[in-house]
Amino acid sequence: MNLQAQKAIIIKQFNQINDENLINAIKNILDYALKKEQQNLDIPEAHQKLVMERFEKVRKDPERLLDWEEVKKTLKT
After folding, report:
1. N or C: which end of the chain has fewer CB within 10 A?
2. Do 58 and 64 contact (CB within 8 A), yes or no?
3. pLDDT (tens digit per residue) in 49-71
4. pLDDT for the residue numbered 15
5. Are 57 and 64 in contact (CB under 8 A)?
6. Rounded to an integer, what distance in angstroms lies between the CA atom of residue 34 and that of residue 5?
7. Is pLDDT above 90 for 32?
8. pTM over 0.70
9. Domain map of the chain by residue range?
10. What string of H, E and C letters represents the secondary structure of the chain?
């Protein structure tokens, strides 16, 4: 079962609930989950800028990239 189908089932079940305490508990869980997701999505502007600068350097000079297999060999020694 895919995620959208699971969500639809949960919504249908939720709509049948009349227990105020259960509804509040579910709301608290959802609020917590949304807050956690938002925290995971917030990337500091300084980090975004650093990545974009590095990307631009690679775009201008792709030869500067190292081969990962070669790099791994140097790390093992």
Report:
1. C
2. yes
3. 999 999 999 989 988 889 899 89
4. 94
5. yes
6. 20
7. yes
8. no
9. 1-42, 44-77
10. CCHHHHHHHHHHHHHCCCCHHHHHHHHHHHHHHHHHHHHHHCCCHHHHHHHHHHHHHHHHCHHHCCCHHHHHHHHHC
